[in-house]
Here is the input.
Amino acid sequence: MRDTDLYTRILGIEAPWQVSVVEVEMASREVIVQVKRKAGVKPCCPVCGKESPGYDSRWRRWRHLDTCQYKTILEANVPRVECPEHGVVTTSVPWAEPNSGFTAMFEALVIDWLQEATTSAVSRLMGLSWNAIDGIMQRAVKRGLARRGEIRARHLGVDETAFKKRHDYVTIVSDQSTGKVLHVGSDRKKAGLKQWYESLPKSHLQAIESVSMDMWPAFINATLESVPGAEEKIAFDKFHVAKYLGEAVDKVRRQEHKALMAEGREDLKGSKYDWLYNQANMTPEKRRDFRALRDSALKRARAWAIKELAMSLWGYVSKTWARKAWKRWLSWAMRCRLEPMTNVAKTIKEHLWGILNAIVLKVSNGPAEGLNSRIKTLKVRSRGFRNKQRFANAIYFHLGGLELYPAGISR
Ligand SMILES: [Zn+2]
Here is the structure.
């Protein structure tokens, strides 16, 4: 087999193209593969596909997969056509996407590596600039988002995740059934989320069955204003409610601890975290101590009991019964004279409608929180992101469930 035939075959070059010359440059450790169009085949306009008269042609180069560790470059003289409808346009080649300096197979390889390693690591590995690798990643995401088609998620999760500093957040909308990120918003304001909702077809907004979230006014209002019947669909997440109650119990503990220290009682020192743990995680001995403390008439025991009762009220199936139980809980919590607890109780009272929705819809932000921790891992791995656009790109790339490969490549 001649080397040109060999390369035609291994590169998967198809008619009317064929490999005409293969040159090995020992000094630069490069293989240059020249590809030529068969004479007599008329070029087509890449937009409409109609055969069009040739205009001129230009030499172009693409980096391809290495040949035995030699950098392999494809070269071709690519015709431009003059289409009566679309003017002068460069014809497309089957091995690369328009405007890319890499063959589709090379881009697919970089995409594979990017799943495993950071942009910097891949750029070192491939001997390419950081920007070149980032460009491949950006194109992959763009391609994936364009291919994604209509979003049909019925159970959404809306959450925020910190970008760089505290108080700088992005909004993450995910599909609760597939765990895929659907949207990354550049802040956590109402307008951004509303805009995203409005980009969806009306029929889909209608079909949304639940939107799980924290009690964040911007998310609540955006959803109320955009999703039909949102009053019955917004679900305030159990874990966020648990977090607020847990923080309030801790606050009660600290206030009481201060008071006790002033009285010279140190018996409660060092048990800060016990109150936040499940009893199930404790040794029998610890559990005994814990029970003794819990059963004592201390304020924090009361606070703890209030929290525990609230957490046991998520199993209802009927909204009516759930409402009755929560109303009883609220009247207890509001009268407990422990300020941190009554504060959370007030918040819960205002948001009870969405808590009841979460209970009967049986949804939580669990899946979104799982995504959140994967996003944190991404951030740690790449030591932060220079800007939000890059951050969003990485989230879509890794967690968007997108088809990232160039056309014609599937694995
Ligand atoms: Zn055309």
In short: The first strand starts at residue 17 and ends at 25. The chain has a mean pLDDT of 87. DSSP finds 15 helices and ten strands in the chain. The pocket of zinc ion is lined by residues 45, 47-48, 50, 83, 85-86 (CB under 6 Å).
